[in-house]
Amino acid sequence: ILIMSSNSELEEQFSAAANHLQIIIKSNSGKPKECELLYLYGRYKLCTEGPCCTPKPGILNFSSRKKWNAWNSLSKLSRTEAMTEYIEKIKQLDPEWTLEVEKQKHGLGISVSTLNHSSEDGDDKQVLDCNKDLFDWCKEGSLINIKNMKPEKWPFDNEKRSLLHWSCDRGHQHIVDYLIQEGHDLNGQDVDGLTALHYASSCDRGDIVELLLKHGADPAICDADGESAWECCSSPSVKNLFNIYCKSLLT
User: Fold this and answer.
1) What is the residue range of 206's domain?
2) Higher confidence at residue 114 or residue 68?
3) Same domain, 101 and 187
4) Rounded distance, CA 112 to CA 109, Å?
5) pTM value?
6) Which residues belong to any copy of the ACB domain (predicted)?
7) For the chain, what is the mean pLDDT?
8) Taking a C-beta distance cutoff of 8 angstroms, is the pair 233, 239 a contact?
9) Rounded CA gap, 216 and 61, in Å?
């Protein structure tokens, strides 16, 4: 158990621990596991920026979503508790490290780049405009380029996700509206059984959820885990949209 004489001393020790993490990562003893880095990341963000108040990343932004969850899950943790737990975790990763405060020469903390970004994790990569396909333009929200490249048959990616899935994930309502007009299957499911409504609901995109329901998306469809779009939602206001929709069917 760490016993601190003052908040200023705790902050100095937290800063020292945050800097020491970079040494641990570069050491020959091996890089910390992703779960350990996420544990530290969430507490560092809470200590330096306060409780999470940024929008939830799309379901396909896997790395960003993991980091957001690590930060957002600490809403009931105090800043003092977060700093203390951060220091204790560094001590676990390097038992030889002492908590003696040392003067820092570099910036503090774990950077976003510290967490691995796998080339297969679904995060966006930089692609030259001349090499972009429909999915690239959809992710960027460029409706004009989607219209310019409109194919005879709308494609799916290798996970059976349509442009409608992607536009719901990214929150591009104008593209969702266009694809609905183009006759996209509102209830089409990807390899995990997720519909566009699942994506919009999981990302708490109420405006898109409302649009999909208005045009006939089926909220009763379950994914491979047996969850409906309503069950994937964490926002009370978006859940209420489903309740209003269901009540309207009874009147």
Assistant:
1) 134-246
2) 68
3) no
4) 10
5) 0.59
6) 10-99
7) 83
8) yes
9) 27
Q: 16: how many CB neighbours lie within 10 A of its CB?
A: 20
Which amino acid, one-letter code, is at 108? L
Looking at the fold, whether 82 and 157 belong to one and the same domain comes out as no
**Is 120 among the domain residues?**
no
Torsion of CA 16, 17, 18, 24, to 10 degrees: 120
User: In terms of domains, do 181 and 223 share one?
Assistant: yes
> In this structure, are 85 and 169 located in the same domain?
no
Q: Judge residue 71's burial from the number of C-beta atoms within 10 Å of its C-beta, 0-12 exposed, 13-18 middle, 19 or more buried.
A: buried
Angle between helices 206-214 and 173-181 (to 10 degrees): 10
| Two tokens, residue 16 | 């020292």
Three state DSSP letters for the chain: CCCCCCHHHHHHHHHHHHHHHHHHHHCCCCCCCHHHHHHHHHHHHHHHHCCCCCCCCCCCCHHHHHHHHHHHCCCCCCHHHHHHHHHHHHHHHCCCCCCCCCCCCCCCCCCHHHCCCCCCCCCCCCCCHHHCCHHHHHHHCCHHHHHHCCCCCCCCCCCCCCHHHHHHHHCCHHHHHHHHHCCCCCCCCCCCCCCHHHHHHHCCCHHHHHHHHHCCCCCCCECCCCCEHHHHCCCHHHHHHHHHHHHHHHC
Task: State the residue for tokens 């990214």.
Answer: 170
Instruction: Examine the domain organization and report whether 100 and 139 are in the same domain.
Output: no
CB atoms within 10 A of CB 124: 13
Q: Quote the percentage of the chain above a pLDDT of 70.
A: 84
Domains in the chain, number: 2
Among candidate residues 86, 105, 124, the one where a domain is terminated? 105
* Residues 217 and 146 occupy one common structural domain: yes
CATH code at position 88: 1.20.80.10
